[in-house]
Amino acid sequence: MSGPSIAVIGAGAFGTRHLAAYQSIGTPVRNLVEPDAATRERVAAEYGVARTYASVADLLAAGAPQAASVCVPGPAHRAVAVALLDAGVPVLVEKPLAATVTDAAAIVAAAERTRVLCQPGHILRHSPPHRALHDAIRAGRVGDVLAVSSRRDRPRTLSRLFPREHPALLTAVHDIDLAVWYAGAPVVEVRAAARTRPGSVTPVLVWAELRHANDVVSSLRNSYLLPEHTPNHTSDLVEVYGTDGVAHVDLSHPTLLVRGEPTEAPDWLLSPVDGGGALAAELRHFLGRIDGTQPTAVVPLADGLHVVRVAEAMVDSATAGGAVRRIPQTPHS
Fold this sequence. Notes:
With 333 residues, this protein is an alpha/beta fold. It is built from ten helices and 13 strands. Strands 12-11-7-10-9-8-13 form a seven-stranded mixed sheet.
């Protein structure tokens, strides 16, 4: 079999998307790591993965792969990513880079120490409409950027599926990253509010106001308030306001909507069931970074750490009743 030896770590929803995306670009995955034996064998059989392991330690003991996608839950990112980096394995770490600033900084330190590639998995920078908006901004089509506004609405299902993950570190990570990318400057100040609903441990609505180093302001809203069985399509909007115009990417209406039992709205833009879309583009870029055909990072590792800093500040500000939180500006902001 030709091509690099790829490993996918985690066989949950994101892991299977990575498996399908690698297949779609002609790079079969040869190694799968998943602690649950039944899931491991089922997913390996479905995607034709030859070798399976219960842990990263078992994978590395059998021989380090040439690259790996880290698709485990956020709290496990640090242990998995650092182990792979220490073994010399380039990694693409699904967003967020880690669940805490401390863990994210440890991953950055490991990448610097080993000089091994670590790519944050911020998929929207690889989405054609989001990239086109970025290119239009950089070309001066809307003049100087004044503000960025975004909203991301999801069904209440997410509160059940991720009962202990704060929206700031789950879905809002996308919007923070886009705000940084479109504003062209890091965030220096955060003020946020959060609200809950009966039966929810974590917030179901998070609203944040960000100020960037160049005085661009960003307003971010994430909610998990749509009815439980609403299709979880990308019902999102991001707007950029400039001195000479306004531009937006509006994903409010799904490309495909099947009103049956159940009603479905497959994601045909970011990670469609056939493995294409923005995720495939992200993986092509990852492999290109490894072989040298893509010399410039679309998502610098420092941006991955900075986004976690901002998300953590959002949580802290909201917990403190909207108190302003400053974001420390370090070489890895």
